[in-house]
Amino acid sequence: MPLAPKTKRNLVTTALLAPSALWLFVFLVLPFAAMVIFSFGERAPAGGYQPAFTLAQYANLPARATAFWNTLILAPVGAFVCLLVAYPAAYYLAVKADPRYRLMLVSLVVVPFWTSLLVRTYAWMYILGSRGIPNLLSMIGIEDVRMLNTPGAVLLGIVYGYLPLMIMPIYVSLEKLDRRLLEASADLGARPVSTFFSVTLPLSLPGVMTGVALVTILLLGEYLIPQLLGGGKVFFIGNALVDLFLQSRNWPFGSAIAVTLVLVVVVVLMVAMRIAWKISGSRQVDLV
């Protein structure tokens, strides 16, 4: 008996989605479920996981308050600084740049991704280290300047590492902007500054929210930049997780922190989507 067209479409859709759904279930859902189970357990005498059902791990979260505090402060601040740098760059690329060179300029934005973040971060360690900028400053009489292993160094590394991820969503949002709206605003007597705040900025806010959400969520789990540029003195949640899982081998406590981090990411994403939806009205907003 031949299948109905709707049934055929459903079968084709299921067949196309099955591989990716299976992949997500095996490598995302199952590991997260294991973390949730571990978070209610206890640390085994030799380290690792011991089955139990206790909330002691969650009650002990304040023991890592410094890591949470550094992450929840520096991640939004880093995203905000990225936004301050990225918006003018994206605006120039989308609105002001010569169309003949626009593709080349956009390509230059993503060129840093061709090099490993580890290599680029080590380069910043040299620049900010004693043989880099502090050494140049000492030559002109400015002594005892310490730039490496500070929150400022971590913030600089964050902005450098994640700036392209902020530029591209804003660029896409501005590139789709109808230039006739800008011309209409100018014809009605609005100055360029007024046009920017009344037309350009509101229409580009979905891209701004996408970039801010993307960068903030990635920064909440950042490990490499605080470890190298912070020298272990600027502790993020990612650093705490590495310490708990690989060194102290307290898997239940590490799982509790990881689950809490996932919940924070979900809340950040939901708030960003809510704000972007209100700003954009009925227009579709994609944050991922």
From TrEMBL:
Xref: SUPFAM superfamilies: MetI-like (SSF161098)
Transmembrane segments: 72-93, 105-127, 153-174, 195-220, 251-273
Keyword Glycosyltransferase assigned: no
Pfam families: BPD_transp_1
GO cellular component terms given for this protein: plasma membrane
Annotated ranges, domain ABC transmembrane type-1: 68-274
Cellular localisation: Cell membrane
Keyword Transmembrane: yes
InterPro entries the UniProt entry points to: MetI-like, MetI-like_sf
Its membrane topology: Multi-pass membrane protein
Annotated keywords: Cell membrane, Membrane, Transmembrane, Transmembrane helix, Transport
Any one biological process term the GO annotation gives: transmembrane transport
Domain of life, per lineage: Bacteria
Family, as annotated: Belongs to the binding-protein-dependent transport system permease family. CysTW subfamily.
PANTHER family per the UniProt record, alphabetical: INNER MEMBRANE ABC TRANSPORTER PERMEASE PROTEIN YDCU-RELATED (PTHR42929:SF1), INNER MEMBRANE ABC TRANSPORTER PERMEASE PROTEIN YDCU-RELATED-RELATED (PTHR42929)
Name of this protein: ABC-type spermidine/putrescine transport system permease subunit I
